[in-house]
Amino acid sequence: MLGVVGGSGIYDLPGLTRVSVEAVETPYGAPSAEIVRGWLGDTGLLFLPRHGKNHAIPPHQINYRANICALKKLGATHVVSLSAVGSMREEIAPGHVVVVDQFIDLTKKRVSTFFEDGVVGHVPFADPVCSLLAAALADASAQEGARVHQGGTYVCMEGPQFSTRAESRLYRQWGVSVIGMTAMPEAKLAREAELPYATLALATDYDCWHEAEEDVSVDAILAVLKQNADLARRTVARLARALPDPSGSIASGATRSAILTTRSAIAPDVRERLAWLLA
Questions:
Q1: Which of 117, 205, 215, 269 is catalytic?
Q2: CATH number for the domain including 121?
Q3: d(CA 118, CA 138)
Q4: What torsion, rounded to 10 degrees, do the Cα atoms 139, 144, 150, 155 define?
Q5: Angle at Cα 267 formed by Cα 265 and Cα 272, nearest 5°?
Q6: Collapsing DSSP states into helix, strand and coil, what is residue 36?
Q7: Which residues are CB-neighbours of 109 under 8 A, at least 6 positions away?
């Protein structure tokens, strides 16, 4: 069951069969939108627009915990993020895609864990992306004609404003590949939920470091988004035919030995809130 989180410009996935719409309750509130459940061939698919159907939720107000929890409760075995990003490298041109393998988290106000209120858990996160899912995602995108850059670092900023020129130049010195506003804490929560996770980062612009280009604007981004959206949908359809076995993922069993708190010391209400995960 492939969970797909659609980013800017991707608010639906045509071609699904046996479609239903699921309103999911979670202990963390409502997800960004109702989740569309359907099938692509023999693979079940769950689609969730990260910013809501009408793009009304800014990056810093997305309920990331509810989104990941809802996908897990509906049976997702993998999660793929479709994400619009700015390119931080000359060779990653607008219209190219990057299947990243690392993240730098610069977010400031977002809740990034399910473990709180008397439960302490530390999941391994050195390699935040499932390499098996990332390889399958890169291959699917390449087969659909994309110029794919496999591997790279995604620096996640708080937003919703774009970077200053000084910030953009600093991130370039760090050697990052792309910049965006939504990968964190999504990837962290997916790992805690033991879900293999990968990001298809769709480059829309060169951010403001690239002096030969105009400064970043919503109009320019939207123009490239329209081109990228169809590619992303085709990539998902192809990926659905060749999902790797989730049991071989680095995410498999990630939470099993992560919790340090004595089970008997966990309050009943907290245990109930985490039942979807601890079970």
A1: 205
A2: 3.40.50.1580
A3: 40
A4: -130
A5: 125
A6: strand
A7: 60, 158
205 catalytically annotated: yes
Closest to 189 measured CA to CA, from 272, 67, 273, 279: 67
Side-chain-side CA neighbours of residue 214 (13 Å): 7
- Rg (alpha carbons) of the chain, rounded to whole number: 18
Range of the domain at 209: 2-278
Active site annotation includes 139: no
pLDDT tens across 149-197, in order? 999 999 999 999 999 999 999 999 999 999 999 999 999 999 999 999 9
The total of structural domains in the chain comes to 1
Note the pLDDT tens digit of each residue in 82-121.
999 999 999 999 999 999 999 999 999 999 999 999 999 9
pLDDT the model gives residue 229: 87
Q: What is the pLDDT of residue 63?
A: 98
Contact predicate 44/1, CB 8 Å = yes
Among residues 12, 207, 215, 230, the one annotated as catalytic is 207
Short-list 47, 95, 97, CA closest to 225: 95
Provide the residue type at 40 as one letter: L
Tokens 């997702």 map to which residue?
76
